[in-house]
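Quick review question:
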């Protein structure tokens, strides 16, 4: 890739001779992109998000909460531990709520400022930044990398490439190991890894996730954003004329052209753009922002930073490339006017709905009863008449203790006259465990007519953690 745009390639048509078939290639070869390093406000924000996201991802599995891992999704035991919360499959509604919150957040951020997620927090962007940083440190700057790739293989080239790929593989493998550490206690996983005693599934997902990181961030890079990510295709449906996007001020920048900083641009009938092509060189997807908004743009702001640097060197005002809206550019709004129009009804509606769901979810978690009960009629034991002429039904109750201490629960039943629990009515369940309990319920013979009757089981936590009521059916034989 040249430092300057070379313009469209000249296509020489080949006219086939009579009797020959014409071969037309529809394949466009991919040209490797060598992003140039850049510094500035948005680059700092991007690296800040890299540090924040990776601190959370790599650090959370090592945090301890009491005698266990703070965040652990134990699929084998079907329990999710999130700090003080213990969630069971019956708490699937919270996962649904989290997905709805994530989707609405994406809609909100996109309506406000375009592809903020893609430019600053997407794993593809984050790991590409990390891998590019390693490449820059090992192989040198953009020019050095381009020059080395064009050269024949030498000892220096082999050494540098080898070190780079070794570091890439190490980061990728550690990433895969950390990912599996969310599902298997990471300290135990580390011991198993060193002893080469990991299970087949743990080994598979460690290397699979590591390989995906290595391939996507090291080789595919912008191809993932341009061709594999569906978000790039439907993002425009969430944009409008008041969405903040990376924008080139064509009115101020055109006509573009190179010049000395000492020359009066107006005398040469030139705009502010010096046609340095640095905005193309720093772009991780290799686009020219001066051609307008393109679906490949991930909104990272790298072109804004480098253009501001050039404007400073030329003594021009910043903002030739900037975050702005379509309406602001056309109507020449100030920054304050632009921001006022960003807070439009659409954004306020998204914010209200999102805030309501977040508040409702936290309230639900705070008042949630820390145990669950499932009631199942024991189909192996029919309704029967027992001693004293009572009618007995047998049920199986699964009591799931969602606390991290041993709890005792009292079981009672109501719904029919004289209904009583004749089996053990107080049971003990260990911390974060579930227990199946056989419960016998009897009613006097004359207390109910033959047929099906609705009854209720009341399960009370003796530790003062609340009470649950579950419905079931009591059968009276004819």
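Suggested answer, residue by residue:
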């Amino acid at each position: 890739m040249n430092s300057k745009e070379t313009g469209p390639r000249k296509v020489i048509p080949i006219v086939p001779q009579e009797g020959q078939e014409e071969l037309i290639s529809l394949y466009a070869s991919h040209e490797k992109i060598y992003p140039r390093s850049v510094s500035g406000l948005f680059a700092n924000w991007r690296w800040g998000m890299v540090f924040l996201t990776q601190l959370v991802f790599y650090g959370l599995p090592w945090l301890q909460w009491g005698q266990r891992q703070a965040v652990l999704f134990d699929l084998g035991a079907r329990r999710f531990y999130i700090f003080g919360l213990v969630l069971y499959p019956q708490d699937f509604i919270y996962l649904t709520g989290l997905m709805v919150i994530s989707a609405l957040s994406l809609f909100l951020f996109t309506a406000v400022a375009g592809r903020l997620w893609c430019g600053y927090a997407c794993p593809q962007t984050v790991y590409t930044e990390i891998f590019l940083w390693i490449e820059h440190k090992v192989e040198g700057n953009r020019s050095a990398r381009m020059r080395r790739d064009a050269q024949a293989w030498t000892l220096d080239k082999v050494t540098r490439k080898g070190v780079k790929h070794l570091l890439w593989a190490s980061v990728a493998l550690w990433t895969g190991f950390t990912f599996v550490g969310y599902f298997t206690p990471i300290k135990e996983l580390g011991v198993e890894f060193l002893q080469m005693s990991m299970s087949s599934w743990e080994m598979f997902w460690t290397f699979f996730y590591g390989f995906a990181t290595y391939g996507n961030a090291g080789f595919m890079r912008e191809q993932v954003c341009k061709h594999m990510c569906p978000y790039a295709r439907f993002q425009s449906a969430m944009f409008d004329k008041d969405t903040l996007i990376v924008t080139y001020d064509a009115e101020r920048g055109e006509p573009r052209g190179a010049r000395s900083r000492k020359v009066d641009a107006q005398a040469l009938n030139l705009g502010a753009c010096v046609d340095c092509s640095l905005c193309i060189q720093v772009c991780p997807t290799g686009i020219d922002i001066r051609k307008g908004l393109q679906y490949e743009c991930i909104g990272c702001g790298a072109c804004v930073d480098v253009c501001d640097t050039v404007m400073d060197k030329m003594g021009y005002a910043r903002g030739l490339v900037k975050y702005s809206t379509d309406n602001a550019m056309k109507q020449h709004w100030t920054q304050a006017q632009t921001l006022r129009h960003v807070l439009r009804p659409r954004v306020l509606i998204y914010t209200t709905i999102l805030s309501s769901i977040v508040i409702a979810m936290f309230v639900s978690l705070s008042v949630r009863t820390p145990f669950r009960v499932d009631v199942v009629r024991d189909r192996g034991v029919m309704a029967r008449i027992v001693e004293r002429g009572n009618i007995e039904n047998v049920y199986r109750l699964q009591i799931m203790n969602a606390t991290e201490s041993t709890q005792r629960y009292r079981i009672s039943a109501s719904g029919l006259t004289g209904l009583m629990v004749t089996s053990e009515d107080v049971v003990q369940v260990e911390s974060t465990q579930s227990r199946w309990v056989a419960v016998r319920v009897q009613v006097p013979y004359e207390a109910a007519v033959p047929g099906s009757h609705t009854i209720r089981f009341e399960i009370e936590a003796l530790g003062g953690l609340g009470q649950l009521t579950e419905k079931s059916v009591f059968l009276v034989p004819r």
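Why it works: The chain has a mean pLDDT of 89. The longest helix spans residues 155-180.
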